[in-house]
From TrEMBL:
Boundaries of every RNA polymerase sigma factor 70 region 4 type domain copy: 98-150
GO cellular component terms given for this protein: DNA-directed RNA polymerase complex
Cross-referenced InterPro entries: RNA_pol_sigma-70-like (IPR039425), RNA_pol_sigma-70_dom (IPR014284), RNA_pol_sigma70_r2 (IPR007627), RNA_pol_sigma70_r4_t2 (IPR013249), RNA_pol_sigma_r2 (IPR013325), RNA_pol_sigma_r3/r4-like (IPR013324), WH-like_DNA-bd_sf (IPR036388)
Domain RNA polymerase sigma-70 region: 11-75
Keywords carried by this UniProt record: DNA-binding, DNA-directed RNA polymerase, Sigma factor, Transcription, Transcription regulation
BP terms from Gene Ontology: DNA-templated transcription initiation
UniProt protein name: DNA-directed RNA polymerase sigma-70 factor
Annotated NCBIfam families: sigma70-ECF
Tagged with keyword DNA-binding: yes
Listed transmembrane segments: none
Coiled-coil intervals: none
Lineage: Bacteria, Pseudomonadati, Bacteroidota, Bacteroidia, Marinilabiliales
Organism: Prolixibacter bellariivorans
Family assignment from sequence similarity: Belongs to the sigma-70 factor family. ECF subfamily.
Length: 161
């Protein structure tokens, strides 16, 4: 990869990578760190990266960095996890976007990641498989299971509104 290709990747993909990571992590500062770490790794390995595969490399690196960071933070849980649940149930939801956001946040990590890549970012099953390191069949299964969970969690639109 050349310096121009690297700079083009920064200009073209930073926002999309950030949105993907922040929707999974729900932590803007952590998402910025993941994006920065991903670009740093890409810079260190630039001699081994094909300029036409920058997008895949970048999203794959960000995905794995994000998963590592989320696993590490789960081990460092501070406070009462039930406190978060109780606060949400007391406040209720004001709109459908909040309900959907809450439902997506309850998905397991892999299901949440593939659903966000597919439904929010618009990637194909093949591209998601390359990014996540899963097979296309696994991606389809995770997306199906996530959508079934979301449908059950959200229920009827009449209940939400």
């Amino acid at each position: 990869m050349t310096l121009d290709e690297y700079n083009r990747a920064v200009d073209e993909w930073t926002d999309r990578v950030y949105r993907f990571v922040v929707k999974n992590m729900h932590d803007e500062d952590g998402a910025r760190d993941v994006v920065q770490d991903s670009y740093e790794k890409m810079w260190r390995h630039r001699d081994n990266i094909d300029g036409t595969k920058v997008k895949t490399y970048l999203f794959t690196t960000a995905y794995h960095t994000m998963i590592d960071r989320m696993r590490k933070s789960k081990r460092e849980v501070i406070g009462d996890p039930l406190e978060h649940e109780i606060r949400h149930e007391r406040n209720g939801f004001s709109d459908l976007q909040e309900v959907l956001h809450e439902a997506v946040s309850r998905l397991p990590e892999k299901q949440r990641s593939v659903v966000l890549l597919r439904d929010y970012e618009g990637y194909s099953y093949r591209e998601i498989a390359e990014i996540s390191g899963l097979t296309e069949a696994q991606v389809k299964v995770y997306i199906y299971r996530a959508r079934v969970f979301l449908k059950k969690y959200i229920g009827s639109i009449d209940v939400v509104v």
